[in-house]
């Protein structure tokens, strides 16, 4: 009976953010626990699934890694339509990437499912010595906009699981 209750809850999750902030790398770390340096950029759509087990539920993420790159912007609404969760990533070593992340958040809040869970992720935390974006600045925006917020590194793996478990915790049991 316990096993029955833990039928996976399917959750569509989209990744958004400026090109090269590390969206694909974050997914690769979460799904395969690996990192590939100087990875070829994702062309077109990549679709991966990964389960996240919590005490009271299992979330099966269907992850869409696609629309972040500028040339796909016009396709974005098609990708985030029906998404229950979004990871909006920026690169802590590139100030402009936070501006881009903010504009994605605003677009999602205008156009996506009103209950969408949005996590803002500052990636490349391993490059602390090249940091351009103060953590407090991103945290403040996240608080004001009602987002989850984490700094993480796809390269070292630090805090990547936390991004997805924090989202999983916010998914209602009856969804
Ligand atoms: P995407 O275009 O947003 O999907 O970005 P990619 O995942 O393709 O990553 C872009 C580049 O940044 C690649 O050369 C990655 O190896 C590198 N990269 C991604 N994540 C990290 C990270 O956490 N730290 C460092 N130092 N480099 C990263």
Automatic annotation (TrEMBL):
Keywords (A to Z) from UniProt: Nucleotide-binding
Keyword Nucleotide-binding appears in the UniProt entry: yes
GO molecular function terms listed in the Swiss-Prot or TrEMBL record: GTP binding; GTPase activity
Superkingdom of source: Eukaryota
Name of the molecule in the record: Uncharacterized protein
Residues of the full protein shown: 17 to 191 of 229
